[in-house]
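stage 2 :: seqdesign
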C-alpha cells in the first residue's frame, strides 16, 4: 500500500468486532465516535472495495456522529466466501445482521451506500424489510445503479444516441458488451499487469481527470487488494442485476448522489432512481466526479449525510416530500 496524506488515514475505532450473518459468514465491523446520544450513521462500501474506502468521510463525521463501517463479505477483514455465495440474498442477510448488531434499539440510522452498498440496501428492503423498517430512518444512495449495469457502463467507447437531448450513450453492439463483461468479471489481466499499469486502468474506469494523485493511488490500492474469488463472484451477480422493481420497497426518505463523469454507473441510473423512489429527496450531481465519490468528494458526501441526519428524526417517520422537492441537482448532469 502507498503512503497517503493524513486525511486518508482513519481514526482509531472505538470498537472493532465481528457480526455473524445467517450463513455463518463473519463480517468485520468498526465503530467510531461511540458516544452516548450520538446519531448512528452506517456506511456501506461497494464491489472490490472495503470499509477503509470510507476513511475521508469518517474523518468528517466521527466527531459528531456514531459512525459504523463494515466490510462486505469477501472484502477487507470479513470472511472470504466460495462460489455461489455472492448473491443479493446474502448481501441482504449480511446487512440485516449488521444493522441489528450496531443500531441501538429504538433508533433509526442514516444509511449511506456506495455502489454495491446502495444495491444491498435496496435488495434488503425487499428481502429483509423488517430490518430496513426497524433500523433505517433515511438513506443516501451514492454512485450506484439498479439494473442495466453492463449495458450502460461507459468504460469502453460508445456511440451517442442521435437526437438524445442528454447525450445518452448506447452499447455499440455485442463486441463492446462482451468486452465490458470480460473486463469487469475477469481481474487476472489487472493482477498480472505491472502495478502502475493496473493503477492507470483502474483510474480510467473509476475516476475522472480531476482526481488527485493521492485519491488515485488510494482507490487503486484498495481495489487491487480485493480477493479474486470475491471480484469474480460479485461481478457475475452485478452483470445480471435487476433491482428496478425493488426500489419501490425502499420506503424511507432517500437522497441520490452521483458523479457527472461516472463511467461505471453513469448518472442515467441516478436520474431513474430519484424518480422511482417512494420518498425521493431528489438527485445531487457532483460536477466532474467519477465513480469513487466517497474518496474524491468526501465533503459533499459528508454534507449530504449531515443533511439527512438533521432533517430526519432518529425515531419518527417523516412525511413524504412534496413534488417540488423531488429533483434538486447541483452542478452538471448527464
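stage 2 :: out
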Amino acid at each position: 500500500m502507498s503512503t497517503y496524506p493524513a486525511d486518508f488515514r482513519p481514526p482509531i475505532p472505538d470498537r472493532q468486532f465481528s457480526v455473524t450473518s445467517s450463513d455463518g459468514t463473519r463480517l468485520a465491523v468498526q465503530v467510531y465516535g461511540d458516544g452516548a446520544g450520538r446519531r448512528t450513521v452506517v456506511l456501506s462500501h461497494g464491489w472490490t472495495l472495503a470499509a477503509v474506502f470510507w476513511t475521508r468521510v469518517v474523518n468528517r463525521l466521527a466527531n459528531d456522529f456514531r459512525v459504523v463501517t463494515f466490510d462486505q463479505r469477501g472484502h477487507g477483514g470479513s470472511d472470504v466466501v466460495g462460489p455461489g455465495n455472492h448473491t443479493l440474498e446474502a448481501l441482504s442477510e449480511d446487512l440485516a445482521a449488521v444493522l441489528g448488531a450496531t443500531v441501538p434499539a429504538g433508533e433509526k440510522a442514516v444509511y449511506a451506500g456506495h455502489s454495491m452498498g446502495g444495491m444491498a440496501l435496496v435488495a434488503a428492503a425487499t428481502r429483509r424489510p423488517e430490518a430496513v423498517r426497524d433500523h433505517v430512518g433515511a438513506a443516501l444512495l451514492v454512485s450506484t445503479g439498479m439494473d442495466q449495469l453492463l449495458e450502460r457502463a461507459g468504460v469502453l467507447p460508445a456511440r451517442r444516441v442521435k437526437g438524445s437531448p442528454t447525450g445518452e450513450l448506447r452499447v455499440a453492439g455485442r463486441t463492446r458488451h462482451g468486452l465490458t463483461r470480460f473486463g469487469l468479471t475477469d481481474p487476472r489481466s489487472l493482477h498480472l499487469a505491472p502495478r502502475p499499469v493496473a493503477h492507470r486502468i483502474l483510474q480510467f474506469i473509476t475516476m475522472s481527470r480531476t482526481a488527485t494523485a493521492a485519491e488515485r493511488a488510494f482507490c487503486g490500492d484498495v481495489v487491487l487488494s480485493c480477493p479474486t474469488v470475491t471480484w469474480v463472484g460479485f461481478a457475475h451477480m452485478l452483470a445480471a442485476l435487476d433491482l428496478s422493481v425493488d426500489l419501490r420497497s425502499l420506503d424511507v426518505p432517500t437522497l441520490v448522489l452521483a458523479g457527472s463523469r461516472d463511467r461505471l454507473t453513469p448518472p442515467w441510473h441516478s436520474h431513474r432512481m430519484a424518480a422511482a423512489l417512494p420518498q425521493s429527496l431528489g438527485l445531487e450531481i457532483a460536477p466532474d466526479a467519477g465513480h469513487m465519490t466517497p474518496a474524491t468528494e468526501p465533503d459533499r458526501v459528508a454534507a449530504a449525510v449531515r443533511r439527512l441526519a438533521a432533517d430526519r428524526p432518529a425515531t419518527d417517520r417523516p412525511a413524504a416530500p412534496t413534488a417540488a422537492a423531488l429533483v434538486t441537482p447541483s452542478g452538471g448532469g448527464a
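stage 3 :: structure notes
- The CA atoms of residues 90 and 147 lie 18 Å apart.
- Residues 157-161, 164-182, 317-334 have pLDDT under 50 and may be disordered.
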